[in-house]
Design goal:
Order of helices and strands: HHHH
Structural class: mainly alpha
Oligomer: single chain
Number of strands: 0
Helix content: 40-55%
Radius of gyration: 33 Å
Number of helices: 4
Distance between the termini: 55 Å
C-alpha cells in the first residue's frame, strides 16, 4: 500500500476532501493533483537514472537489503565484536623488527636495516599527539 495507508483510509480522505472543496472546484483540484503526481514521478525517474549513470555499472550489483539500517541490532553487533578473535597484526613495526634481529637495537650497527641508533633518536612528531 501507499505509505501504510489502506484503501479505506484513502477513500475517507477523498470523501472529506470532496466535501470540503465542493463539487465546483473538485475537477480542477483533481487535475492539478494529477499533474503534480506526474511531475513527481518524472522527477524520481530522472533522479534514479542520473544516479545510475553517475554511479556506473557497479550500482546494479549493490544488494540494498544489506544496507538497510533497520536490520542493524546494536546488541548483535557488539556481541559479534566481542566474540571475534583479536585482530592479528600482519605488519610488525620497524623498531620491533630491529630489536628482534639484532641483540641491541640502540647500538651502532653496520647493518643498514637498523632504523636508528642510540646517537640518532627516533623521529617525534609533536603535532601528531
Amino acid at each position: 500500500m501507499f505509505f501504510g495507508l489502506t484503501i479505506e483510509k484513502l477513500l475517507l480522505i477523498a470523501l472529506v476532501a470532496g466535501l470540503l472543496i465542493g463539487p465546483d472546484r473538485l475537477p480542477r483540484y483533481a487535475e492539478s493533483l494529477t499533474r503534480f503526481a506526474k511531475r513527481a514521478r518524472e522527477y524520481v525517474t530522472t533522479a534514479k537514472t542520473r544516479v545510475k549513470d553517475e554511479m556506473g555499472p557497479d550500482f546494479d550489483d549493490v544488494d540494498w537489503r544489506t544496507l538497510d539500517p533497520r536490520q542493524y541490532d546494536p546488541r548483535r553487533i557488539i556481541r559479534e565484536a566481542l566474540l571475534d578473535d583479536a585482530p592479528v597484526p600482519t605488519v610488525r613495526a620497524a623498531g620491533v623488527a630491529a630489536a628482534v634481529t639484532t641483540p641491541n637495537a640502540f647500538t651502532k650497527s653496520p647493518s643498514p636495516s637498523a632504523p636508528f641508533t642510540a646517537s640518532d633518536p627516533p623521529p617525534f612528531d609533536s603535532e601528531a599527539t
